[in-house]
Hints:
The protein is mostly beta strands. The chain has 1 helix and 11 strands, in the order βββββββαββββ. The chain is globular and about 65 Å long. The two termini are 25 Å apart. 7% of the residues are buried.
Amino acid sequence: VGPFRFYLGVTTILTQGDMVIERYFTRVDNQRAKNETKALAIVLACDAGRYQVPKHENANSITKDNISVNNFGDNGVVLINRIDYFSVKLGVKLAEGLAYIPINTYLTVRSKSATNTLSSSDYRYDGPVVAIELAIIGRANNSLGKTNKMATTIFNLQGSDYQIREKTPHFVRLTLQNVVMLRNNHVTP
């Protein structure tokens, strides 16, 4: 967070030294439409919280035992209704160039140190994350009907095909894919 005071949401004030944590996830919509089953009523949500970096420490020296995260861990706020697919890949700067890889692949452990703790060199991919690639398949609220054969059920996102599980009723669907370069990443796109 920058040196200036600003608001997170409507009432939460952030100040210098506050570190903001955000998580984006899909969940069942608590307020689904009349024509939606629980399996179809999926939303993209965001939950955010913060913690204060003690003045005598920097962000790299923080451990779970010396911080307290506030306002984090609830159902979050709905960002987009009717999500059929949501994916995040990390843009990692490797010696071979920029590679977009799933988060769990990036966190693959190569080896553990003698003290049985992890350091950055213990991970298979130790290049810096310089971008984030997001992909979404969203759908309309109203169906096209059970007999409409025009509806697409296979979509290509992030270089892979994704098949919609709920094939009937048919819906109009839209794919969204975007790459966000992280600030101060020292990489030219």
